[in-house]
Amino acid sequence: MTTANNKKGVILEGRVLAQDFPLDPLTKKILLEITPPSMGNNQADVDRVRKELIKQFGPVRVPLSLMQYIPYICRETDWQVTATVGYNGSDWELIALEPGNTTDRHYGLAIDIGTTTVVVYLVDMLTGQIISTASDYNGQVVLGDDILTRIFLAVYENKLPDFQKAVVTTINNLILELAGKNAVNPEEVSAVTVGANSTMIHMLLGLDPSRICKEPYIPVVNSPGFVRASEIGLRVNKLAMLYSFPSVGSYVGGDVIAGVMVSGMHLDSEVSLFVDIGTNGEIVLGNKDWLVACAGAAGPALEGGVAKAGMRAAEGAIERLSIEPGTLAVSFKTIGDVKPIGICGSGLIDCLSELLLNGLINRQAKFQDGCKEFVLVPATESGTGEEIKITQKDIDDLMRTKGAVNAAVETLLEGIGCDLASVSKFFTAGAFGQYLPIESSINIGLYPDLPRDKIRLLGNSSGEGARQALLSNQKRLEAEEIAGRITYFELNANDSFFSRFVGSRFLPHTNLDYYPTVKQKLKDRGLLS
Amino acid sequence: MTTANNKKGVILEGRVLAQDFPLDPLTKKILLEITPPSMGNNQADVDRVRKELIKQFGPVRVPLSLMQYIPYICRETDWQVTATVGYNGSDWELIALEPGNTTDRHYGLAIDIGTTTVVVYLVDMLTGQIISTASDYNGQVVLGDDILTRIFLAVYENKLPDFQKAVVTTINNLILELAGKNAVNPEEVSAVTVGANSTMIHMLLGLDPSRICKEPYIPVVNSPGFVRASEIGLRVNKLAMLYSFPSVGSYVGGDVIAGVMVSGMHLDSEVSLFVDIGTNGEIVLGNKDWLVACAGAAGPALEGGVAKAGMRAAEGAIERLSIEPGTLAVSFKTIGDVKPIGICGSGLIDCLSELLLNGLINRQAKFQDGCKEFVLVPATESGTGEEIKITQKDIDDLMRTKGAVNAAVETLLEGIGCDLASVSKFFTAGAFGQYLPIESSINIGLYPDLPRDKIRLLGNSSGEGARQALLSNQKRLEAEEIAGRITYFELNANDSFFSRFVGSRFLPHTNLDYYPTVKQKLKDRGLLS
């Protein structure tokens, strides 16, 4: 894994996270000073340990696999032992018993499983802070690029076990990397939380995803709750529990629930709009009284590999780009500050925006004067020895993505009878949401033209939600409550969506009055009278 | 397995058991008529099933291993399914989901694991009745005859896994036998309860028994509670829970707790005495306000294989025996009504009693006039072609057993300051307790000389206790409560015990006034002036 790629995951690392909730992690560690047995006090070992735990937690289950070690562990350090106790959603269970006092070492993992990228956060359960982050491509990518392909292969070619193994292997390798870097034994990881979309959760748990993509779109489970992490092969303490964020349905997954929770929009009296753009775009609208969500295929235009020069956000990818008015000289920044080898999603959006603002394409997003492409980097300056350019087809793909997201937002607002002016906050989430340039995203009409102070970048809110649920039972219950509150709004059942989608193939929008700041920019540059 | 051997286990079978508690079995089966999903009702499959369960049970955990099958099971019978839900001591969990209505088939197992014999009862959870019983020697017998040998081998020759495997294999074979005979799929068994002594429970669960037999006698666990039956390899539904009766300590095990529960002495305002004689003798004295227990090695004299002609209670064993006064002709009854091949515990006690009442041995239990043995069956009439006889050594062994039990009862009564007259009921339990002839047991002083209407045979109360705990959560909690209430009385710490043991080598007792009915019999026969 390159440093540049790693950057994707470090968006939460390095800064001290504000803790707006009290620490109440899924597992607790406590030191037990146990009275040793004697002829006058011959209680059995396990019952003796349990008696101490009951004082703190009430009834605590002791798994058989731990019972057999308890006599040895207790006698190794003369009955001073550290218990790790975990909550499994309904009761407390002993997860580990260690000799001596190890209460200063208490670890959990928060995991964001994206279709493309997996990010694992090693969390200090004592402080709530992220100790270290590791990320890598989801190992499923090499088996099937997009979600639908993966579902197809899982269902029709019996590859579900391969997909499960691939993502578990990815996570396990990241766990080993984190463990090595931070001198933590994976056995010391006592709890795991995961934010991911429904298909990723199904594949992680080995559940049949076949009905996710066919009417009436019924997942196997929306609220998997807690399962034993070792049951799916995760290399952590074999009694550690894994909590998966609940989903609302096939297309509004746990990653979105995590995002809503992190945004706080579900507690706000004012209305917020939450947008997570990946291969699918998920949109949530609402406040403390109501929450409505919709989802639609945004298309893979931003995911790399679609545009001719497109690539994922890895080293050598152009991530920011500008074109100087007049000279049309292209400036850019690459990930890792090396020679460019391609362009990633954020670069593509900058590029489309700059082509528009410099009059190189018209408002229908077409090149002018018979031109069919625009060279961003000449062959001599690129890292591959070939020129990096954007073609009309690349732009058309990007327009479909922006059109789908835009139409979905408008259809949802209209369907709910809410106008954009009443939206007090606009949250962007997900891997793209973190990196998409706001101004360019507005210029091309991907984001609505709102006052900039209303726009909030949530970063990897799926991972941050996982961290919060790892650290707070109350947050975990909040996630379940959000999932239960969200009403799903079916875009496909709505005629308005398709006509909006077709009509939204203008830059930034068919109706320029919806985009006053972009209209002004175009006027300022003499592109509009 | 022979029919005769099987007889050992059938003591509860065939008669309709009075149910003095309401049926509230550890697992429940209910029919779910689930609304199928549709575009307007697209809840996920697992959540859909869980929603129905919550109506009846509150929160119900759905194990991952079941989640994956739920979509198929529900669709197989158009969303009419039968759920088996089990209680694991703290919350409810889905154990099975079957297509269609299978609520008329609901099975559990109650198991009594004796050091020598294992009895498995197949219980109908709908009626509470025993459908069928199977029993066999505990497979551990061939590895080590008595408990101390087994502990030694487990600890010093690392044979614990072998002992665990042996008893699990015994149980599994009995399960297969019951399943085959009664057309029940072992997968349909959704709960298992076990009554057994502490060492048997340790070996069943794979727990180190080494500290059971050395000061300060600390078991690994007294209250194992619920563990997954499949975790120890039992061939039942792999999500079925196994509940083990709690023990009070190393020497007062779950079998005794089960016996006390079945006797009802813990609810009685009058004082009862409970005696379970096996290799060890366990004695409980008390009432609804207090319970005291003691235990001591009774010796293996009654278990077969010690006496020269001794054998276990299997086909061909002399189980009842009498000697005609005057002619000294021996009449007997064998198990299976076949030619005798040996004599089992009950036959030995009859024999000793008859030898005494016919003046063939004196009150010191010694043959008279240089005689060293007594032939019970001549070679021509025995099934082996050899004569069956009782020797002085056999009698001496038996005297040690009766002495130990008698001394323990007297020491406990004295220690508590309770006299025999205030004992309102005398319960005998365990494999021997069921079969020992009461009059002969009193004649030799093994049992106290109480009015006969005070004496109650509990049968296999360990198995019956297991059946009750299987059928009633309240009974299960009652067992835990009994275990918590019993005070252990240490015989070895009591000088009186040893002097009583030494002094009790008279028939029936050093002080004949303790045995007025026996004294009268001896007088009637002219053996006492």
From TrEMBL, chains A, B:
<feature type="domain" description="RACo-like middle region">
    <location>
        <begin position="107"/>
        <end position="266"/>
    </location>
</feature>
<dbReference type="InterPro" id="IPR027980">
    <property type="entry name" value="RACo_C"/>
</dbReference>
<feature type="domain" description="RACo linker region">
    <location>
        <begin position="18"/>
        <end position="103"/>
    </location>
</feature>
<feature type="domain" description="RACo C-terminal">
    <location>
        <begin position="270"/>
        <end position="519"/>
    </location>
</feature>
<dbReference type="InterPro" id="IPR041414">
    <property type="entry name" value="Raco-like_middle"/>
</dbReference>
<dbReference type="Pfam" id="PF17650">
    <property type="entry name" value="RACo_linker"/>
</dbReference>
<dbReference type="InterPro" id="IPR052911">
    <property type="entry name" value="Corrinoid_activation_enz"/>
</dbReference>
<dbReference type="InterPro" id="IPR040506">
    <property type="entry name" value="RACo_linker"/>
</dbReference>
<dbReference type="InterPro" id="IPR042259">
    <property type="entry name" value="Raco-like_middle_sf"/>
</dbReference>
<protein>
    <submittedName>
        <fullName>Ferredoxin</fullName>
    </submittedName>
</protein>
<dbReference type="Pfam" id="PF17651">
    <property type="entry name" value="Raco_middle"/>
</dbReference>
<dbReference type="Pfam" id="PF14574">
    <property type="entry name" value="RACo_C_ter"/>
</dbReference>
